[in-house]
Fold this sequence. Notes:
Chain A is of the alpha/beta class.
Amino acid sequence: MFDQISIIGCGLIGSSIFKRLKKTGSTKKIITFDNNKSVNEIIEKDKLSDEIFNSAGEAVKNSDLIIIATPISSFENVLSSIKGNLKAGSILTDTCSVKTGVSKTFEKMNLKNSICIPGHPVAGIENSGPKAGFAELFEGKWTILTPNKKINEKEIKKVSNFWESMGSKVKIMSDEDHDKILTFTSHLPHVVAYNIVKTSMSNDEKVKGDIIKYSAGGLRDFTRIAASDPIMWRDIFIDNSALIIQAIDKFIKNLDEFKKAISDKDSKKLIEIFEKSKDFRKSVIKAGQDTDQPDFGRK
Amino acid sequence: MFDQISIIGCGLIGSSIFKRLKKTGSTKKIITFDNNKSVNEIIEKDKLSDEIFNSAGEAVKNSDLIIIATPISSFENVLSSIKGNLKAGSILTDTCSVKTGVSKTFEKMNLKNSICIPGHPVAGIENSGPKAGFAELFEGKWTILTPNKKINEKEIKKVSNFWESMGSKVKIMSDEDHDKILTFTSHLPHVVAYNIVKTSMSNDEKVKGDIIKYSAGGLRDFTRIAASDPIMWRDIFIDNSALIIQAIDKFIKNLDEFKKAISDKDSKKLIEIFEKSKDFRKSVIKAGQDTDQPDFGRK
């Protein structure tokens, strides 16, 4: 494995990585950097890092693997500050939720000393920050790697092994495929969740209070998704805006048709939509992405 | 309490009621009717009813409380068939998810022998049918009663006590308020969940397969809601169509604004939407409608 690993950005994902590394003891030295003082205090108090640096540039020196786990909007700045200090032959990866932008930035920065292998652990939860992180976060989840075609298979294998040591399943695909899939599995659902909360909130105060009180009928599940980290989601929506807008347009077109079926009281059409949804749900369960135990009506 | 209770319709809700009644032994006689033979076989096998009838009309004779737990589209037919057989002074209630239509039907049928008190246990889960029902389904959940103003408080209290014996919290409100609130807490979330599944499914087969494979990033939670009982939801959408269409229009208007913020890469506007969503989520947790334990990233 890697003798020395630097983690730049110690939020939910970054902290879950070093908590796992500490637990398994699979690396000799863990180095961390975060530009938030209170984050560093938490890390120091719990002895989760072997060395905490005050600059990203200092933090990457001599490291064999560098993981950038910052919001997308900080990614390019981080690369600029570490560029001159990377060890020859080191591997550089990231955990950003959009991959075509990351690939372009890697290319633009032309980091000759390092091998750049973009990655995305699909392991988000609605809580954020280093306190929310835990060693088992990645267990059974997918991590998607999107190296360009010039990258040596041996190097990809090292990163792949690393994520497997985190408990993750690993899949290699192109950055375009990644962004297209994630638009539907994650980005559009978040747009819609935020928007349904926004729509519910636009009622007058009395109704709004009642909506909160009786939100267990379905709405609360949307508030759960919509509680995710604001900075992260702003960055995703901006970085992947073209694909997300296409998906929103598709969604609105379908919603208009759905509205027409409701307005026409078109029983056959409605049942058809619902039955297909049930089939899709069955496929999700079959793919091991969820269980069929009821949870929607949980307490 | 009631000496004899008839349950018409033995799906998730109806079966959860008689399972609870059997468990607590709080009534002398439980009578059931369902027009589905296989449902009656399940009930008979597990000895969950004291008497199973082959017609709704026969099933209500001499009963003190009659609970209609059928889909909305069967409600008027059930009333017609039981109308002549209701015991004087009996109480008639239902469990339908839309209440203004039920009130109108009660009024139209002019059932002189019985006191009609519409009700809605807000306790749905994504599974349906008598096998999915369980005695604890209503525990800690709200049941909303929407009696008209002419109904005696003493009679309302009896139904209220009944639902409390089911483990439920009870709230009395007007049928209009009920439908307005449920439009936002339950009906619109279901429209949106069905529609996001529909939109994801409209991709080509390869992408669709990948979307299923990586659906844990948010989409699976929508598939869970969208797995609910098709007949029930068709009926809700048709019966509450006017309010649901208004809500869809509001939702699309907000989504257009949201889309513009993404397209303009309007960081300030996006963060504002997200922060407000987080506040709303906090209110939902404060109202005891959900916990703040992460679940979105569950295995």
